[in-house]
Amino acid sequence: MPQPSASRRQFLQTSAATTVVGTLASQxxxxxxxxxETNTLKVGLVGCGGRGxxxxxxxxxxxxxxxxxxxxxxxxxxxxxxINRLKSTEYGDRVTIEPDHVFSGFDAYKKVIDSGVDxxxxxxxxxxxxxxxxxxxxxxxxxxxxxxxxxxxxxxRTVWEAGEKARQRGLxxxxxxxxxxxxxxxxxxxxxxxxxxxxxxxxxxxxxxxxAGKHYARTPGMSDMEWQIRNWYFFTWLSADFFAEQFVHExxxxxWVMQNEYPERVLATGGRQTRIGEANGDVFDHFAAMFEYxxxxxxxxxxxxxxxxxxxxxxxxxxxxxxxxxxxxxxxxENEWRKRKNVNRMYHNEHVAMYDSIRNSKALNxxxxxxxxxxxxxxxRMSAYTGKEVTWDQAWNSQLDxxxxxxxxxxxxxxxxxAVPGVTPLV
Length: 427
Hints:
Elements: H1 4-14, H2 21-27, E1 41-46, H3 50-62, E2 66-73, H4 76-87, E3 102-104, H5 108-113, E4 119-122, H6 129-138, E5 142-145, H7 153-169, E6 173-175, H8 183-193, E7 200-209, H9 224-230, H10 236-239, H11 242-245, H12 248-257, E8 265-271, E9 286-292, E10 298-305, E11 312-319, E12 322-325, E13 330-333, E14 337-338, H13 346-359, H14 367-386, E15 390-391, H15 392-397
Helix pairs in contact: 3-13, 6-7, 7-14, 12-14
């Protein structure tokens, strides 16, 4: 499996989109300097759903000298709703969005980026993330982007390249993989790294619940493209399917436990039993994956979205001296420990870290793990969809590109084809 430095070299050598580093750097806008705590940072929000609105509120709570000055979404009704919700919070006086800084349509992200903001929050459906991250970094903006960062390997490589540009230019690029910023999780995993459970023997995660995603009824005259985007959670080209969209949090926690070593291969299975019919697009409702690492360690990861079943949400790290229960912040075995009190402010903390990095000119860049954890979920989905074992190198180099080239409501929507293991090809 390519390690972080090797993967970076491989990408820079093989991606057709990559040019000489010096040339890339010279083409980018230099980031503004914001040393000190009193300079106002202008923030633009792209994506006005629940997570985007939440990210905007978190950003306002994290830095008293930032303000939201631009907002954009594909659908104008969402921008209006988000503005109203943000203005009703205790931070409403810092929501200073003029009418000509409210944008809608497929190019809304470009208009937000070009509106004079310093920081861009990206929270649209994941399928749009690669082009949005790329555009924001090319424009010299600091970026917070939600997880996952892509829905396919081509998108992952696009974000990887953008992350390299951000690193070269001293731009902050923060991921929405929020458990990395959760204090109790940090302490638990630090103890694992310091030997509390001994040599690692096995990893295990489950996430069983009724599922996320809201169905939006098709109205007369609505195109297939609009209908799919409004129901984005149920279409792989928009959501990546829930093993990569939601379960990526569990994958990233274990990547953190493994000190950002990623698996060599995965064999996964999955399907849909209750999430059926046209309204549910092409996504599955259950997955089970077995990841294998270079040293032979295995990670068993299972998840389902099915109503009326037992819910479970657990992460265990098993070593030869004990077992860590990540979600309960405790360790049993030779070095017993439990965190008694924990205030979960991870969504807030990731924005605090972002502004601290910007204001103190010490760029924070989460590219390595936000891209690789996203790819970890995507490779498991690829395995489950095809029935084939998928190696890390296969996934990293895959030409799978699910995002449509033409983006308009009049354009043809991607065909809806539920994957059939053993029939669906591995690209």
